Hints:
Elements: H1 2-17, H2 19-40, E1 46-51, H3 57-67, E2 72-76, H4 80-88, E3 94-97, H5 102-107, E4 115-118, H6 122-155, H7 162-173, H8 190-196, H9 202-219, H10 222-229, H11 232-238, H12 243-273, H13 281-304, H14 308-325, H15 337-342, H16 347-360, H17 369-395
Parallel strand pairs: 1-2, 1-3
Antiparallel strand pairs: 3-4
Amino acid sequence: MVKVLAIIRIELTRLLRDRANLFFIFLFPLLLIIFLGAQFGGAFSTRIGVVAPDDDPAAAAVAERLDALDGIAVVEVADTDTLIDEVDRGLLAAGLELPEGYGDALAEVEQVDVRFLGRADATSMSLRSLVTAVLAEQEQPGAAAQLLATGRAATGADAVPVAELRDAALAVQEDAGTVEVDATTLGVDALAEEFGGMGQFDLGASSQLFLFTFLTSLAGSAALIQTRQYGVATRMLSTPTSVSTVLLGTAGGRLAVALFQALYIIVVSSLVFDVNWGDPLAPTLVVLLFCVAAAAAAMVIGSVFSNDSQASGAGVGIGLGAAALGGSMVPIEFYPEGVAQVARITPHAWANEAMAELVRRDGTVVDILPQLAALGGVAVVLLVLGSWTLKRALVR
Length: 396
């Protein structure tokens, strides 16, 4: 057992001493989690920029009313030039410029010129309709005052300033009759609801864990070839060390590398990004079985190739390809049915499916038993194949 632990320790030391590995193991996974969280995480809101005069309650009320709408986020912009630039570059979906004296003009029932900035797309057209509706709400008391003034003039009644009539309309506005619309949404997208209930970085964390754990394991398979090339394996076998001990230590070393990568992503993403990994037992089983599969796959790659450069290249190619097919770059639910079925040949597909059940649907171990069984089967097959090929390579 001491010899097995010594081999495992050497494998981890070799991994951490390679400076190139430090970026791909520690930094790159977190960068991708941040990128995916920024692009796809959390609830989606359409951003509309607003340029409004300071200390104008009416202008502030427009911004507050827009921001209260579902799916709309109001961004305060300092000046018109900045607003035009950000809308033009797509940083804002649309822009609204309220002029100086906006509230005073409304109070005096005077014409107000408001500027709307949008792009030539459906989103801007929809936002323009929303902005028009919000502005119409503020315009209604003035319109009522104008109508009342016209009626009084037609009947010969004493003239009353329109501004006073507007104040009277505002005073009774809350008691006026309203129309409430009870909206029913048909054809609700269950997948969108699942994603909407997740934290900003939850989706990226689990998918990138499987991508990098498998990729790191396979890319590190070159170390197995170097062990043979440098005569380390021969020297170990020349001592009172059996082939089974070397195999066990090598398999344990590959597993330690995979577990190290996975544990690092889980701990850092939980502490820094507050990622929800679900019930502790279930994700542990998923990650453990996946790491065994990754370690076994690395043993196969490190045994069938005789050149470490070939093994590294093949490991990166297979690792990225399996991750892409298995749903670690795009959720597997977006795949056509045929492609989704083919994806099940990868351990990534079963692992991502299990994590989707745990994180997005609050599942338990019982709910992911099929995925655990499939991952276990893949791990056993690869481990048997990896042990057989590695043994042949060591004694050859």
